[in-house]
Design goal:
28% of the residues lie in helices and 32% in strands. It is α/β, with parallel strands linked by helices. It has one domain: 3-Layer(aba) Sandwich (Rossmann fold). The protein has a nine-stranded mixed β-sheet. Strand 3 and strand 4 form a beta hairpin. The longest helix is centred in the middle third of the chain and has 14 residues. Bound molecules: S-adenosylmethionine. The site of S-adenosylmethionine has 18 residues, from strand 2 and helix 5.
Length: 223
């Protein structure tokens, strides 16, 4: 079912309003990926992937990579800018774009099924939860849990705004929202948390409010 936010994302990509897009590989991916101890040929899933350079980095490590992204503008740009000529085919409600080990399903994440993620050993998730409206976040985690193979590990990168009254030390703890979202059937380990001055869309840095960058390793199993 289409959500009103879909039109906003689609329009944003058409107008090139993509402040979230990073022009280099995410440093936390480079730093924490080795901790997953994957084999080079282990398959990786990247939900809500945009045209992230992280996809290409994972592909260059040897991983088969599967992304899902709503906007065809983003998917086309990813394959063009990565110089990976894609083949396209309809797969139910989704369009499957692929070049050798690199594939992106274009369409709504909630249309993906377990058969699309067979053999996935790890998830690399940057900013998916922030991209979704609050009322969809629990459904996102439930759907992710339903379609992922059981032995899968998740590297989750989040950026949280720090409330004025919140102390820096409290902000460096695992977020309540993440703990609640992944309470059922997952073990959460906060691997990194650091406060940064917030960068406003003009590119200026302001001292307040601060944002907190966090990296979680999430595995199946009860705490
Ligand atoms: C905040 S951006 C993050 C993109 C990417 N993870 C990155 O690091 O650059 C969120 C992306 O999710 C896509 N998106 C939003 N809702 C989606 C949905 N329901 N299914 C698939 N993609 C979605 C948007 O088009 C956007 O490209």
């Amino acid at each position: 079912m289409s959500h009103p936010d879909h039109a906003l994302w689609q329009a944003g990509w058409r107008a090139n309003r993509i402040d979230f897009h990073q022009h280099e590989v995410n440093p936390s991916l480079l730093r924490f990926w080795p901790e997953l101890a994957l084999a080079a040929n282990d398959r990786v899933f990247v939900p809500l992937c945009g045209k992230s350079l992280d996809l290409l980095w994972l592909y260059r490590q040897g991983h088969p990579v599967t992304g899902v992204e709503l906007s065809p503008v983003a998917v086309r740009a990813f394959f063009r800018e990565s110089r990976l000529p894609p083949k396209r085919a309809s797969r139910g409600a989704l369009v499957h774009w692929a070049h050798e080990r690199m594939e992106v399903f274009c369409g709504d994440f909630f249309q993906l099924g377990a058969s699309d993620l067979v053999g996935v050993k790890a998830v690399y998730d940057r900013a998916s939860l922030t991209a979704l409206p609050e009322e969809l976040r629990a459904s996102y985690v439930a759907h992710l849990s339903a379609i992922l193979p059981a032995d899968c590990v998740i590297l989750l990168l989040t950026v949280e705004d720090l409330d004025d009254e919140e102390s820096e030390s409290a902000a460096l703890e695992p977020s309540e929202e993440i703990q609640l979202l992944y309470a059922d059937g997952f073990q959460i380990e906060l691997r990194y948390a650091e406060c940064f001055p917030a960068v406003i869309p003009t590119g200026d840095i302001v001292a307040e409010p601060r944002s907190v960058h966090k990296v979680y390793l999430i595995r199946r199993g009860q705490p």
